[in-house]
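INTERNAL AUDIT FORM
Audit reference: QA-55
Scope: verify that the stored structure record matches its stored sequence.
Auditor: D.O.
Record contents follow.
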Amino acid sequence: MRTKWKLLIAIAAVVVIVAVAVVLINLRPTEQASQPEPTAGTDMVAGTLGFPVSKISIGEGGTTTAADGKTPIGYNGTCDSAAQAAANYTPVLHDVNTKTWEAQKATMKTLASDEAWIKDAVLLGDTFTTAAASGNFKSFDGGWLDRVDVKAGGLYRLVSCEAENRALIQVVYGGLRGGEAEPGGYFGTDSLELVWDGDWKISDVLVRIDDTELADKFPDQGPAGGLVGASTGEMPTLDNGLVSRYFENLSKEGWVEYANATR
């Protein structure tokens, strides 16, 4: 009788072990399935400012140049190329040099699918050149009145994109603006809508604060502001202190650094 009990206990132990093994095997796929799927860009490393760093570089992506001889155009229609186009087009929207302003206005038209926004962009540049001609605005470095450098800001946010169709992109840039003394540094954000027309073209850009129809398509208008202290005449670059200041009331979600941003 004692032998039978030992046999029954041994069999019960084996049954329990097998049952536990089956449960564990069945649980493993469930646990794996509950984990989030990897998303695009998870291979990016964090930069010095805490944002992920993309493999996309400013100044690349185009196959030829616009009429100004420096703005890359001729993209392949991918969302990565849309992010490159947005960075490369941004200086054309803001740079104002008394010696090249007329050529720059012509370049704006080659980047546009809808010229409605050009009137406002050109009006800003005309205001600078008029002030400079009257002596009320001091130029710097050979005729510059306003000059931006996307590498100085170096951030972008791809709000939405469909390849070879439409993209909403925001680009943070650094800038220098002339005046009565040394040019002062500042940062701004361009919010652009690009459409595909054999190339990425600007269909709209947020150049007016009252353009609510376009503004409503973006989470916010992005970081912007001047620098505290005396003007240095040097192009500013983002650092952790400035990021904390500019993003104090803004979300950092979705923002990515260009690979060759100045840091």
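Auditor finding: record pair retrieved intact. The longest strand covers residues 184-196.
Action required: none
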